[in-house]
Amino acid sequence: MNERESRAWRGLIAVTQLLPAALDARLQRDAQLTHFEFGVLTILHTMRGPAMRMTELAEATNATLPRLSNVCSRLEKRGLIERSPCADDRRATNVGLTTAGRRALIHSIPDHIATVRSVVVDALSEEQLDALADITDTIIERLASLDDAAPPPAASRTAR
């Protein structure tokens, strides 16, 4: 790599390592949630219907089933979600948000948005935000093309 390429690569790696840690620290302090747990609760909150299959939730969160299962166990112990057998397929498990989970998510959203604004959005101009969205879309598409059998990550399916 030349210096320009190396600088861009090192910057991307630093952001992918530092940003999740910063979001986790703030969410842990303010809402006793990790950023991943916040994402799980958000997806469950925005879904249609009372529950979704674990496999669908894993896809939507870009997580493996074992990781998601561990996180769901923690959330279930805290009363934030509930799991139940799927009526259509006894091998599958459904996950739904509880009232306490909905309350915890809604309580955590304003502080989380303030953190995201402070750390990322307010630090960039409108042009830089557009460029960041284009850059991440391009990288996500490239990552999805590495395995044509896999659906694109959830982040690339969200509207800007």
UniProtKB/TrEMBL annotation:
The region annotated as signal peptide is: none
Domain HTH marR-type: from-to ranges = 5-141
Report the SMART domains cross-referenced here.
HTH_MARR
Which GO molecular function annotation, any one, does this entry have? DNA-binding transcription factor activity
Q: Name one GO biological process term.
A: response to stress
What Pfam families does UniProt report for this protein, alphabetically? MarR
SUPFAM superfamilies in UniProt: Winged helix' DNA-binding domain
Domain of life where this protein originates: Bacteria
Protein's name according to its UniProt entry: MarR family transcriptional regulator
